Amino acid sequence: MKRTGTAVWNGSGKEGSGNLSTQSKSFVDQPYSWHTRFGDKTGTNPEELIASAHAGCFSMKLSFVLGAAGFTPEKIETTCTINLDNGVIDNSHLVVRAKITGITAEKFQECAQEAKANCPVSKVLNTNITMDAALL
Fold it and tell me: What digits encode the pLDDT tens for the residues 52-96?
């Protein structure tokens, strides 16, 4: 399986702008610029897309790990914060809240750690990955 994303950029790094799109067309020509990345202008940026991808991938992987352990989650909500410092993504922090009937806190932590280590996005990120996981 291969998936694609497309970026079009026009102009210089600080004054220019561009747009981002996905193969599925669920995300089409979304604006991005220096101001959406480092300022407060409306639009997207690579870091928030990485954060969304990591949160989504982790949540799905956790669901699979829980299923293999005999649990069906009612809800998994993951927020990911990507930290860009001096041009380097140096941390991806996952905050996970899950509602799962019948699981112990210890078993949940074990499953969450396995998902964090083995979701495909975690594996591709060359950064420190931290997590705060709790049951609801």
Answer: 999 999 999 999 999 999 999 999 999 999 999 998 999 999 999
Q: What domains appear along the chain, each with residue ranges and CATH number?
A: 5-38 (no CATH), 46-135 (3.30.300.20)
- CA pair distance 81, 120, nearest whole angstrom: 17
**Residue by residue, what is the 3-state secondary structure of the chain?**
CCCCEEEEEECCCCCCEEEEEECCCCCCCEEEEHHHHHCCCCCECHHHHHHHHHHHHHHHHHHHHHHHCCCCCCEEEEEEEEEEECCEEEEEEEEEEEECCCCCHHHHHHHHHHHHHHCHHHHHCCCEEEEEEEEC
The pTM is what? 0.94
Instruction: With a cut of 90, say whether residue 126 has pLDDT above it.
Output: no
Task: Tell me what the pLDDT averaged over the chain comes to.
Answer: 96
